[in-house]
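Listing S7. Sequence submitted for prediction.
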Amino acid sequence: MEGSDEAKRREADHFSALPDDVLISILVKLRDVAAACQTSVLARRWRGLWAQLPELHFLHADPDHIRCALEAYRGPELLLLSVVAQDASPESVAVWLPIAVPLVSGALHFQNSRSPQRDEDEDEDDMGGADLALPCFGTAAEILLNLQVLRLALPPNGVFARLTKLYLHGLRLRGPPCGLGDAVSSPRSPCLELLSLIDVWVLDDLTIHSESLEDLQLEELPELQHLIVKAPALRELAVDNCLDNALTSTQLVADISAPALESLMWPDLCNPRSVQLGEMPHLRVLAIASFQVYGQDNSPAMMNRCLVATLRRFQSLKSLTLSLTYPPDIRTYRFLMGGMESLPDITFLALHVTSCQHSFGASLFHVLRMCTSIRGLHLYFDAKPEWQKEETVCPSDCICDEPQKWKTEELVLDGLEEVEIFDFGGTEHEVAVVKPLFCWATVLKRMKVNLLYSVTESRGGELRMLFLSSCRPGILLEFRRRARLF
């Protein structure tokens, strides 16, 4: 009878009759090595299949368990090793990380989070403790490390022969010098195509010489003082909240040679004396520093002149992102928009306006009349800058509504087909600049308005009806509140 029951169970176990590759594809979808191991109790057929998975995912696993799993791995190719930990120590990571070196042929992802209970004193202790030594992964194609308080020591030698993507986020490097530039340059990373550095500390100098690099992302590098990039294949460069000394320095702070560059996103770029940009004949997308609408003939005016000098380098662009910024009190300042006399020939314009509750029609009109051939326009409204905690009120004797001639001058945007507005609060000043767009844009086909989260649904309905009264037939007008169309 027992043999008969066993035969019936085998007959009913249709899963075990499936080919190994199908069973493995099922286990991969669990995205958890511990859960995959537990399937071994289902039948002898399932035993050991987890050790052949092309992806291994560990979620808050014991370091010794990770080590044992890697030592037992028998798969032909480990395409992804993903480890998620909390408050990991360098010693705990060192238990399994070196074992992974010869196994990973695809991607290594290690993300370490900081527990809410952890205090700053513990963070300081870790910073003064041991380093997490990164071995040289000679066969890995991608590495992503997000270490939080852990300090990373890069390998002093060895070649990342197949590495194409490197993400270093939320970590401290051992140094100075940290050796990062040497590690990511062509002699040691000959295939590297993408380098992303976000929230990285103890990085004051970065020099990259790469024949293969195509995409470079530098963001929140508070200690970076000097940047050199020589990358003939680089197509995309993004620099944000880095090189604070470049704003005022008269010395060379950054030297970029990227003749194939197509996209440059550098919101802090405004001083050509300290930032040397080589020839970029293929540049199509540009996002640079904020233009100060009002100010004195000192720092704001100087920064504006530097920005204009950068813009003059380009005759035409596919996309341009600009910011217009107003100080809270402008009564003793003068209007500086006259310093912007021309813009490149552009197809798409993204304009960010930080108005501090002032009227901004004159500055917006000034920009639009220099790019009448645009086909797409995005407007981002911000009543106050992030650093300003208190709401400002435009005083009754404010000069922000001057000059007023923009209200009566003719403007024809005969190529503008689509407009999208973000964080629209429906203020008097915002309505005053949006309504004329229906007249200025003679071939407008669509306007999409994304309301500020604080705008009520009833107020949104009122604004929609107000715009419909100015909207020509054939224009598709969309109003969205918290991503919902109404």
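Caption to Listing S7: primary sequence and predicted structure tokens for the chain studied. The first strand starts at residue 55 and ends at 59. The two ends are 68 Å apart (CA to CA).
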